[in-house]
């Protein structure tokens, strides 16, 4: 392996069988790419059709037969503010079931090493900024994603409990807002950056009168909701443009601040954390690490960057009647930085990479 790979995986062995749950998702796929570049050849994956992580019996049989050395739990039901508002029951049930089954059955099968992927939404809505790992459970959560956040907190605490009772080496990472290749661009449940990228791309196509290109985009990335059709001037049947003044409408006031991390940087952080000794997570230290850039930007500034990247020169309208969510979500990255990791991609370079992937042939 390369010198960098040897260093970052010092506590791992290339012969380990590593199960990556959620390998088809943006984060899981990026972690596999990183592991492969680091020389790991025994990576185990299962599609949902092959293994339903909500079914305890199936998960138990999988671990009984596969002799897994390390689990990366990247499988989850995820979505943006609209999806969290619309499907709260699915978000809490699905994520709790996946975590409970994978963590428990991994321990039951003798797997001592596991990395659980959480989310920065675990922190209180009005937590001090930047948010430190010690701020967990010190205040109320943001209501729009509370069910999802509670499920993620449960995953952290489950890892802690198994470490304390059974002596396992289960640890967690809390990423900030992620984006990049393999992101979800469906406008009913996407996160902020993929939603913006697609909205601005569609508006640019509409401004250029490229109806056929809009139809191809819809076939690849999912239906365009009625409000977005109206904003860009697309007829209900996608056959024509009904006006020539496309605009992009975004939720909220545009003033909340967000921190964004490219998924390849997140994958590098995960492999780095997998290689750390368990002493890093021994009480009273938190059992998890924040992963972010340490810098944030307003939603309005993010929109301006993406509009310029995509090449849309029309109007952006913010709808203050829709929720803003948490006013600010900036992670303190002091602990993981002190442990030898930091991101490599700037936001501008990362957005350009994400847009290249979006435009790439299907």
Per-chain topology:
Blueprint: H1 3-8, E1 18-21, H2 26-37, E2 43-44, H3 56-66, E3 70-73, H4 81-86, H5 88-108, E4 113-117, H6 146-166, E5 169-175, E6 177-179, H7 192-207, H8 211-221, H9 226-232, E7 247-251, E8 257-258, E9 260-262, H10 263-274, E10 288-291, E11 297-298, H11 299-310, E12 315-319, E13 328-329, H12 334-338, H13 347-359
Parallel strand pairs: 1-2, 1-3, 3-4, 4-5, 5-10, 6-9, 7-12, 8-13
Antiparallel strand pairs: 8-11
Helix pairs in contact: 2-10, 3-5, 5-6, 7-11, 11-13
Describe the structure in your own words:
Catalyzes the two-step NADP-dependent conversion of GDP-4-dehydro-6-deoxy-D-mannose to GDP-fucose, involving an epimerase and a reductase reaction. It catalyses: GDP-beta-L-fucose + NADP(+) = GDP-4-dehydro-alpha-D-rhamnose + NADPH + H(+). Keywords: Isomerase, Multifunctional enzyme, NADP, Oxidoreductase. By secondary structure, this protein is an alpha/beta fold. It has a domain at 3-182 and 259-295 and 329-345: NAD(P)-binding Rossmann-like Domain (Rossmann fold), CATH 3.40.50. Helices cover 42% and strands 13% of the residues. The chain has helices spanning 3-8, 26-37, 56-66, 81-86, 88-108, 146-166, 192-207, 211-221, 226-232, 263-274, 299-310, 334-338, 347-359; strands at 18-21, 43-44, 70-73, 113-117, 169-175, 177-179, 247-251, 257-258, 260-262, 288-291, 297-298, 315-319, 328-329. It has a six-stranded parallel sheet, sandwiched between helices. It has a three-stranded mixed sheet with strand order 11-8-13. A two-stranded parallel sheet has the order 6-9. Helix 2 links the parallel strand 1 and strand 2 (43-44). The longest helix has 21 residues, at 88-108. Residues 1-9 have low confidence and may be disordered.
